[in-house]
């Protein structure tokens, strides 16, 4: 057999995780809709109701990833990533041609399909990152999901910073950036992930907690930097050169996670030198083969009594939860989770889609500030939600969906602030809704993988995520859009001013978030015995 080329070989799971984080950082294209929706409205001759329908098409594309889930089971990682990148290029590239008047405007329904195709490509990047990483870190699922979803949540802020530095106020060129950016980034990431058939994992992974702390530290530094830059840009007059400098530093911080795989490798080599070779070593290598897609990975087997009684037992119990699609669809727990996501995350998506119009209605001029802040707090919510959820479940044995209920209550509080709109509280409202929404993204995929297994995770995950745009479709089409347009007509304008524009909408969405929290608590009650079995040793150790 011929040896693999040096650039195309198996990688450590930490290298693959870093690559997955960067995949997610380019996949959050739906979060920048507010930044370029203005040029769609002006160049395509749309009113607010048309923009809301485009937003729904965007949300449907971003969440209906069943095709990505199926393809992840039969195609190598690099092929799925390329398919997603070309879908993004085709969809957003055609939108750029439309707004640039290079091609004549098609019927509006076709524009919606084009928007769907462009955002749907991101599901291929997202699903590949999740499936690969969860397979390699089965005992730290919430931590990994929080990290990955955090980078996706920050994606919008990253794109907005590039826009502010090089393209503003040219929103048409920003659409071109969205079209080209992912496919340019995916090329080196495909090499980082490798062929996908084998993933080399260090024999000695005693420093897993340290490595995760380093990744979380780099991520929080990135979020803090982005928040600082956003506030400076809002409060001060920043020239073009300063914005470019901000962006250069941003990319340098993005490179910091690359040190983690190297640290893991050096730690493993040092451990191997210090540990004497035993006839029957306590630390052995084994290969784990996924019978569904042939994914093979080499993992360490730590045979200490404590880990046998806790970590290994937990992993075996989780492996036993693998369910077929038909069995999962007949399970009441699955539908409780879906309706919980339907009510709560659909409201969050609607809030983000209308954030620019809400800021304008309350008299704010720099609406991009709130879009960037929502992405940053979304990022923080995903990181913190994943970490707190992992601690609550693995240390105390609490059902995973209790954290989901808490996040939904936080979102309800944010919706109430949006509805009442006391002076200057929009900043707090953005924080509450974005952080709660982000925490949900970190918690529900982990709960799904624990309750129904990894065998069909890609398909089930994308099925559950469809609940979010379904909720957004109802809120945007039948509540937010009509209420806004009706109040605008009363004011004799195409734009609405004042809290009345969104008051009814957000009171309704606050109520449904409370309903979602009740469903999550019901699911927690139904699954508490399962979590006690899985994590009882950890909880009482």
TrEMBL record:
GO terms for cellular component: membrane. It is found in: Membrane. The chain crosses the membrane at residues 78-98, 105-125, 174-193, 214-232, 244-264, 334-352, 401-420, 426-448, 460-484, 504-525. Pfam families: NFD4_C (PF23262), Nodulin-like (PF06813). Keywords: Membrane, Transmembrane, Transmembrane helix. Residues 13-261 form the Nodulin-like domain. Residues 328-531 form the NFD4 C-terminal domain. It is a multi-pass membrane protein. This is Nodulin-like domain-containing protein. The lineage of its organism: Eukaryota, Viridiplantae, Streptophyta, Embryophyta, Tracheophyta.
């Amino acid at each position: 057999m011929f040896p693999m080329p040096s650039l195309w070989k198996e990688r450590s799971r930490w290298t693959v995780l870093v690559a997955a984080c960067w995949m997610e950082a380019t996949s959050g294209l739906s979060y920048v809709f507010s930044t370029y929706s203005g040029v769609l409205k002006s160049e395509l001759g749309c009113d607010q109701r048309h923009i809301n329908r485009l937003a729904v098409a965007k949300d449907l594309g971003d969440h209906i990833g069943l095709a990505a889930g199926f393809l992840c089971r039969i195609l190598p990682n690099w092929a799925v990533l390329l398919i997603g990148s070309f879908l993004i290029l085709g969809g957003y590239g055609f939108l750029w041609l439309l707004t640039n008047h290079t091609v004549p405007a098609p019927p509006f329904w076709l524009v919606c399909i084009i928007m769907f195709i462009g955002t749907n490509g991101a599901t291929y990047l997202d699903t590949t990152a999740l499936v690969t990483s969860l397979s390699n870190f089965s005992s730290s699922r919430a931590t990994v999901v929080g990290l990955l979803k955090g980078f996706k949540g920050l994606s919008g802020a990253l794109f907005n910073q590039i826009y502010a530095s090089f393209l503003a106020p040219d929103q048409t060129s920003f659409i071109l950036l969205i079209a080209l950016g992912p496919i340019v980034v995916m090329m080196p990431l495909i090499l980082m992930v490798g062929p996908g058939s084998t993933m080399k994992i260090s024999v000695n992974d005693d420093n897993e907690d340290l490595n995760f702390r380093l990744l979380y530290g780099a991520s929080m530094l990135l979020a803090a930097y982005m928040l600082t830059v956003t506030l400076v840009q809002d409060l001060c007059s920043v020239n073009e050169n300063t914005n470019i400098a901000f962006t250069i530093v941003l990319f340098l911080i993005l490179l910091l996670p690359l040190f983690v795989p190297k640290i893991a490798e050096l730690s493993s080599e040092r451990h191997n030198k210090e540990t004497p070779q035993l006839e029957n070593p306590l630390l052995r290598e084994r290969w784990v083969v996924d019978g569904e897609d042939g994914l093979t990975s080499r993992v360490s087997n730590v045979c200490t009594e404590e880990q046998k009684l806790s970590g290994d037992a937990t992993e075996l119990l989780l492996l036993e939860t693998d369910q077929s699609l038909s069995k999962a669809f007949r399970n009441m727990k699955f539908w409780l989770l879906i309706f919980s996501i339907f009510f709560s995350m659909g409201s969050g998506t609607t809030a983000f889609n209308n954030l620019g119009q809400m800021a304008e209605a309350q008299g704010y001029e720099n609406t991009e500030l709130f879009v960037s802040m929502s992405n940053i707090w979304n990022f923080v919510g995903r990181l913190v939600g994943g970490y707190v959820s992992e601690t609550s479940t693995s240390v105390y044995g609490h059902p995973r969906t209790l954290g989901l209920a808490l996040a939904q209550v936080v979102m309800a509080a944010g919706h109430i602030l949006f509805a009442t709109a006391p002076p200057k509280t929009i900043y707090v409202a953005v924080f509450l809704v974005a952080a709660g929404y982000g925490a949900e993204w970190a918690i529900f995929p982990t709960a799904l993988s624990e309750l129904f297994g990894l065998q069909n995770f890609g398909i089930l995950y994308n099925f559950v995520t469809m609940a979010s745009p379904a909720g957004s479709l109802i809120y945007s089409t039948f509540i937010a859009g009509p209420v806004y347009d009706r109040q605008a007509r009363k004011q004799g304008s195409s734009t609405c001013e004042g809290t009345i524009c969104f008051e009814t909408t957000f009171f309704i969405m606050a109520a449904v978030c409370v309903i979602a929290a009740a469903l999550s608590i019901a699911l927690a009650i139904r699954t508490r015995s399962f979590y006690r079995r899985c994590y009882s040793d950890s909880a009482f150790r």
